[in-house]
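Q: For a teaching handout, I want to show students what a protein-ligand complex looks like in token form. Below are the inputs, and the small molecule is zinc ion. Please produce the holo structure.
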Amino acid sequence: MPVIESTRPATRWTTRIIPLILIASVSYATYALVGRACSRFLINQRGEVGTAIAILVLYFLFLLLMVSTYLRAVTTVLLDPGISPLGPQAIQRRERAKERRKQGNRGSDIESQRYYGSPDPDPDSPGLEQFYTKDVFVCENDGRPKWCSECSNWKADRAHHSSEIDRCVYRMDHYCPWVGGMIGENSFKFFVQFTTYTACYCALVLGAVASSLRKQVNEGSSIDPHFIPAIVLAAFFGLFTFLMTVTSMRYISLNMTNVDMLGSRSKVYQLAVRVPRGTQSTDKFNVVTYPLSKPNPLPNGWYNGMTRTISIRSNGSEPQPNPLPFARDDLATRTFAILKTAPGENPWDLGMWRNWKTVMGTNVFDWILPIRRSPCVNHESYDGFYPMGYVLDNILARYNLTDIAMKDSSGVEMKELGRENRS
Ligand SMILES: [Zn+2]
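A: Here is the structure, written as tokens, with zinc ion included.
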């Protein structure tokens, strides 16, 4: 499994040095708290065995949770950060760039700089089907999904291109040098658990060492030289991780990410929402029908761009063009209304409790242990890439589509593809 690292050498080196700083800090905190405050001061000098044992039990509990969530977060961001696949053009482009680097050519030719800025014009573009088999997806004005020119592929809802790792990341949050990679939907839960346990760990070190220092000051005994550096370290990392935890908890409660927050008050999302076949565009919205129609037929009955889909027969007979689009796709045709959210509306907001469960899991063990990934990493539902709730209902109501969206022409929910009830 390839390791996903930053494309910038300076960042790569930073992420390699940081674990050493963390190990040194934790080792020092352990020496100051376990060796000096608990063992030497509380137990040997003052005989407060009960207090020392209580502190030690909590200390090793938080240490264990902190280390395990850290390792889970680091391995996830390096090995499986949740990135979307590259399109064929991007794969070829990157292979050519790698080849040139091997040959010592820094890529002065035009080919090395070419980016496929505009979306794939092919109506049967690979990957499109993953969008129009769902009931809702984020789209552009023409009803097609967003396109990533760097990855040469369609962008899933809430996926963003990270220039740091040069890939599109699902539900991208931020690049974290402390865990050495991109925090996205696969790692966000472990990241939050890590910052929470680290804040608790630092609070314990800070409280226990500061309390020992206060006793020494009050009694006029000599002050342990390791207490003040330990307090400074614990206060620094404690404050930092506490603020990260508070911010992350806020994002979880709102079902937002760092990226979603940028300009969130004025952000407008455009959604393709499935409506019954035959629904026409109105002055309020346009519709798009998938599979997209092919260009006009040529005089010989063939279609432009058809050669791509023709297969060479093994018996050597003449290849035949695919059947006409309406015959080919009639049953699989799906129509979508292109709707806009109000500025600042977050279509994925499900209310605080459901927002929490989509990231942190459905039970207490999921919340506290870094074992299972967030439920929101599962994109197999035909409803959409991520669940939607009351906000989508509000949008449909504004467009007077409540009675027909995601229902067939007789008003029955289109459940043939396993749609679950959204409420
Ligand atoms: Zn991308």
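A: Two things your students might notice: Confidence is low (pLDDT under 50) at residues 107-114, 301-328, 416-423. The pocket of zinc ion is lined by residues 148, 150-151, 161, 167-168 (CB under 6 Å).
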